[in-house]
Design goal:
alpha+beta, Jelly Rolls, eight-stranded mixed beta sheet, 14 strands, binds N-oxalylglycine, binds nickel (II) ion
Length: about 350
């Protein structure tokens, strides 16, 4: 519990263990010339399909607006996340765990310590099934309205993700229900990432460059800058939009589409003035679901670029620590996935 940054007194400087060597921390492109595409889900069906596929192919990342999750749900979610991180330590101590197998836990990026480096983030990570049933019974009971609001946000946000997957199927010529089975029905994860104010943002990271290991991720970023996406060799800043979701493809979607859609590296910078909290919903396959390139994307000219393995095996061979520390992840994934073909 003493590893949690948000409970420690404000620091005047960053301890050495957080310092990232400057060559590993290229600054974001200074011009805001490139920004992530914004897809308006209230547009015509054909337009939306095309926009998602174009944005996905070009950036691997986009924002969606008019997605149907109400502003009230977004504001309630933001408020209850803030309330949670403001609770006194004794009300959260029972949730703290460094055991990665635990589905519901509070932990800190300070415990990743990859390559000797720690990350400036605390995280509340919760799992849920659908129907939700009693999967929330281990969720925090304090603040009192947390469970109700988290459940509503989690279920609705997952719904938007499923809708996006369906639209992607149509755009790519897959059956609309291609992702409805085991590929998306593993426990969903609701992750609240909290990045406290940091005295030295130019030498620290909230999250190192990484690709997400799951199928698709939706992030509600809140009003503070921090998320950056790799685009043509440059880091570009994601512009916070109060009611949008930032959507990105996980490695499983790259595998299923045989690389047509790419899982793109992203990182989180810290901020000296403001703490930042983001809320991410991860949709992922079942542990025993075999994930490999779909037949629709294979032909004599398009052999599989990835090996077919169960999601459970994939997770075991690609630990979060390895992933989050790897700067060359996609290549790394291909090398590992390609072997034995
Ligand atoms: C993640 C992630 C982005 C953010 O949790 O995998 O990339 O803005 N989060 O917190
Ligand atoms: Ni991520």
């Amino acid at each position: 519990m003493e590893n949690m940054l948000h409970l420690a007194p404000c620091r005047a400087s960053v301890p050495d263990c957080f310092i990232v060597p400057p060559e590993q921390l290229p600054p974001a492109a200074s011009v805001a010339a490139v920004s992530l595409p914004v897809v308006d889900l209230s547009g015509s069906h054909d337009e939306v399909c095309r926009a998602i596929l174009d944005a996905g192919k070009e950036f691997g990342f986009f924002q969606v607006v008019n997605h149907g999750v109400s502003e009230q749900v977004m504001r309630d979610m933001e408020a209850v996340c803030d309330e949670f991180f403001e609770l006194p330590a004794e009300d959260k101590a029972h949730l703290y765990s460094e055991d990665r197998q635990k589905p519901n836990r509070l932990f800190s990026g300070t415990t990743y310590e990859t390559g000797g480096q720690k990350y400036w983030m605390d995280c509340l990570r919760l799992a849920f099934t659908f129907p939700v049933g009693d999967s929330t019974s281990e969720w925090p009971e304090n603040p009192e309205r947390l469970r109700e609001i988290f459940e509503k946000f989690g279920v609705l946000t997952r719904g938007v993700g499923m809708e996006l997957l369906q639209l992607l199927c149509e755009a790519m010529g897959l059956r609309p229900d291609h992702f409805d089975g085991g590929l998306s029905s593993g426990d969903a994860i609701l992750s609240v990432n909290h990045y406290p104010q940091c005295p030295n943002p130019s030498m620290t990271l909230g999250l190192p460059p990484h690709c997400d290991r799951n199928l698709i991720t939706l992030v509600h970023t809140g009003p503070v800058h921090g998320l950056e996406v790799l685009y043509n060799g440059d880091w570009i800043k994601v512009e916070p939009m109060p009611n949008a979701f930032v959507v990105n493809f996980g490695l499983q979607l790259e595998v299923v589409t045989n690389g047509i859609l790419k899982s793109v590296e992203h990182r989180v910078m810290t901020n000296s003035m403001l703490a930042r909290t983001s809320r991410a919903v991860f949709i992922q396959p079942k542990e025993d679901c075999l994930v490999g390139p779909a037949d629709e994307f294979l032909s004599e000219d398009n052999p599989p670029s990835y090996r077919t393995v169960t999601f459970g095996d994939f997770r075991r061979t690609h630990s979060i620590v390895k992933l989050k520390s790897s700067l060359n992840l996609t290549t790394n994934l291909k090398n590992i996935q390609m072997k034995d073909i």
